[in-house]
Structure formats: structure tokens, C-alpha cells
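S.,

As promised, the pyridoxal-5'-phosphate run. Input:
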Amino acid sequence: MNSHPYADQYPVLRGLPSEGRDRGAILAELREMATQEDSFWQTGKASGSFYCGDMDHYAFMSEAFGLYGHMNALQRDVCPSATRFEGEIIAMGLDLFNAGTIADGDPVGMITSGGSASILHAVLSYREHAKASRGVSSPNFVKPETGHVAFDKACHLLGIELRVAPIDQATVQVDLGAIDALIDDQTIAILGSASNYGYGTIDDIAALGQLALSRGVGLHVDGCLGGFILPFGEQLGFPIPKFDFRVPGVTTISADTHKYGYGLKGTSLLLFRDRALRNGQYFFQTAWTGGKYCSPGIDGSRSSGLLAATWAGMVATGRDGYLRYARSIFDTSYAMQDAVRSHPELRLIGTPSFLFAFTSDDVDIYHVNDALRARGWRMNGLQYPNAIHMAVTRPQTQSGVVEAWATDLDAAVEYAHTNKDAPPQSGAIYGSVPGGLTPEADEFIRAVMSDMMDQQQGLPPA
Ligand SMILES: *Cc1c(COP(=O)(O)O)cnc(C)c1O
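Predicted complex:
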């Protein structure tokens, strides 16, 4: 990471400006930076991250944000609109995931600040519910290896033991017997993904649901990534197994409005088959000198603006919009997968849909990535085994992107053959740690992250 990425264009602030600056000049500066950064993903060469890409839709949601950005969703007496936004976003989510079919619970939901936060609140709910209903005192949570790292983080933060079940290397499906063997009387819940982040494959949610029911534990379906595209893919007739509340045993679902929901960054949905599970994770303190306090989640004050923008974005898109975008994303993804299949050196992993991962048994896949990067592509790197993936989003559905992909992939495979004896530049990094790092010692990673945080403040390296 560059510590002062715009130092060559603008002065670096080291403190609060003594006099306030002109708003017009500030906005011009912001516009300049945003335009520069947007121009990268607008090429359609960035995997994931920029799910919507429609600048008019962004402007529309920003206008909705602007009307409510200063309002506090924690204080419903003065901001009752937050209740309308949240209630209707949750209702739209419950409808999308077929909560109407639930006969054995009262389906409810909550809005969180993102996928990791939805997962954190789900795991917290399971921990508290298991403690209250079964006296679980040393909780553990079981996930397939392909389950998102946010579950590792949630377990770390909440003092829960994480148990990881291996996957079949060929199908990348979890070994159900291994999940079963990891469950004991302290297990609060198990996980299935629809889809998982790495390979975009969908776990056998029906089988996991049966397992969860027979062992008396919860089943969280991580639809953070797939939640707002798979239901539409299913409706369009693409081969997508059922993963929502129609499946017996599914007790919670997370789905990110800020991914394929096409919302602004900062909201996600967490849905519960039954109210009792959600109610476990409230916090309240009635004896504080500052007054009686209660909050439904980990956040205190939150902006109503994001709720308004998410609500407005979903309502403006509608089922017809989500269906139309899903069709073009699926079509684009399958066309890009055909280009991968045209190279015998490359191998698609599992049964992909809108997100596909591939590796190679003949060339170094990171060489392929290096060459793609040189041609402007930003893929995500995976490890164990080394692979790369593309999460197809709306920017890829522009005309010419599939063709550019095919051409650049041809050149990248050739590059990998020609350069097979040189070490590749790429590695598998998710999140904000800068490239080129070999994750060995904890202390080393901690030092890299510390430098990154310090440099952000303009401090010299320690
Ligand atoms: C993105 C993602 C998450 C985490 O979501 P954030 O919004 O980045 O916190 C969790 N699970 C899956 C499958 C994801 O793709």
C-alpha cells in the first residue's frame, strides 16, 4: 500500500485545517479522485467488488442517502422512517428466501453493516440461544473449509471454538461425514454456503439441513455473496439447488445487499427462521446512570442514510431488474468459463455459476494471473491449491469484455508457458494486506499490518 497515494496531486494534511475550505473546491478534489478510481473497474476487468456499476443507480441511492444520512437509526422516536426502511428491507428479504413456507417458526430479520457483521450476529445468536436453551458452556461452530473467513473471525471475537471439515478436492463439496463427526453436545451450529467465496460453488444445503435437524443444531446458510443473485438464477432455470427457508433445517441466512443487492457499501441482511434465535443477542442495561439502554446488535448509533439508500435501491430495481441483471451475469460468466475450457492446461474447479475459479496442473496459475494483471485484469488469488477466481458482476456484462477476456487469457496461458522457470509475482491475498507477502510468522503479518495502519497516519515505518 502506498502511504500517501495522492501526495503528488494534493497537499497531505497533518492536522485539522485552521480555516475551513471552500466546499466547491473540496467536491472538485473528491470528484477527481473518484473519477480516477472508477475508471479502473469501469473497464469490466475487476473481479467482484463493484457489483452494480450503474452510475445513475449510485447517484439515485446517494440522493436517498443524502436525505437521511444525518439521522440516527438507534433513535426511533425521532427517526421512525428507519423502522419503515428496515421492516420493508427485511420483508423483501424474507419473501425472496421463501420464509412464507416456514411452518415451524416465526421468521424475522435484522440489518447489519456488512457480511462479516451478519455472520458475527448470527454466531452470537447461536451462542446465546444454545446457552439459554441447552446450557452450552464451551461452544463450538462447525464449518466446511470453504466457509468464509468471517466465521473464523466471529469465533475468535466471541470465544467460540471453530471446527473445520475438509472438502473433496475434485468436487470441492464438504465431506458430510466429517461435519457429522465434528458435531458434539457443545456444537451451536454448522455452516453451508450459497455460494462460497473461493469457488462460487453451492454446498449441499438439503443434506446439511437433514444433518442439523438430526443432531439438534442450527444451520446458517451464508448467502452473503449469492443471496441476491442465486434466487433469480433459479427462477431463470439455471441449475441452482434449493438453499433457502424451503429447506428443512435452515435456521439463519445472511445475504449482502451491498453485493448483488446492488446497494451502497455498508448493509447486509440477516434472516432467522424463528424469532427466539434472534432475540438471544439483544443487549440491554437498565441500571446505567445515562438511562436505560438497549440495542438490537453490536452497533450503537448508525446512519439511517444507508437504510434509506438500500431500501430505495431495492425498490427501484424490483424483481424484474434483478432477473434481468442475473441473466446477463450468468450468460457472461458461462461465456467466460468457455474461454477457460478452451485451454487444456486450465481446469475449472467444481461446478461454478456466476463466480468461477480455475487452476492448472501444467502451468503456474500465478503466471497466468501475472499476465492477466499486466493486461489490466484484477482477479482474486486462492491457495491450497493455488487458483484464481473471477466473480462476474455487471461491469463484465458490457459488450466487448468477454472477447477481451478470451484474447487476454490466450496470451496469459502463452506467457505462463514461456516464463515457466521464473518465479511468479502473484500470491493469494484477500483483504487489505499488501501483495508479495509470504504468510509465515504471526509476528511478521502483525508488523506488516501495523506499518499499513501507521503509514495511513503518515508515521515513518517502525
Ligand atoms: C463477502 C463475503 C462475506 C463477508 O462479507 P463482507 O461484506 O466483506 O463483510 C461472507 N461470506 C461470503 C461468501 C462472502 O462472499
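The domain at 319-418 is CATH 3.90.1150.10 (Aspartate Aminotransferase, domain 1). Residues 114-116, 148, 150, 193, 196-197, 222, 224-225, 256 surround pyridoxal-5'-phosphate (CB under 6 Å).

- D.
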